[in-house]
Amino acid sequence: MAGPPVPSPAAPAPPAGEQPVPEPELTPEERHERRQNRWLMLLTVIAVAAAAAAAYAIFEAQDAKDENRAGSGRLNSLQADLEVLREQVTQRLDEVESRVDDTVDRETVTKLQNDVDALDKQVKDLDQQSGTSDNVTNRLDDLEQRIEDLEDDSSN
Q1: Which of 154, 71, 42, 64 is nearest to 107 (CA)?
Q2: What is the residue-level pLDDT of the chain in tens, covering all 156 positions?
Q3: Most buried in the list 103, 114, 119, 132, measured by CB within 10 Å?
Q4: Is 76 inside any structural domain?
Q5: Among 75, 79, 65, 152, which residue's Cα sits nearest to residue 112?
Q6: What residues make up the domain containing 38?
Q7: Residue 54 falls within a domain, yes or no?
């Protein structure tokens, strides 16, 4: 069996003739001054931290501003490219529309010309069959006039 536990040695005892000097009790003014000093030190630490954060924010803002300038140049370049593409698409669309308009007009004129030729042939056939072709001739003249008007409109 082991003996009773031995307590760990405490702070060394002062030498035999010396008594520990008790801390003198602080006056209320001294305690107030110490509290103020603690608060001032705490506020100083907070102020230094705030200044460091502000400096960091200024550097970050400057970096963001520089990036925006670079991005702004790229954005302006992209906007200019977009405008050029928009103009090119508009021109191409106008060209296609004019081609379609021209094609429709040509087809219409060709169809009408074929109709006139067929009617002319019918008129000649009818003219040979009967002696009165004034009414048919007038209709044929009207059709020819309409064709000329359409050809004039399509060339404008």
Answers
A1: 154
A2: 556 666 666 556 656 666 666 777 888 898 889 999 999 999 999 999 999 999 999 999 888 888 777 666 677 788 888 888 888 888 988 888 888 777 767 777 788 788 888 888 887 887 777 655 567 677 888 888 888 888 887 776
A3: 119
A4: yes
A5: 152
A6: 33-155
A7: yes
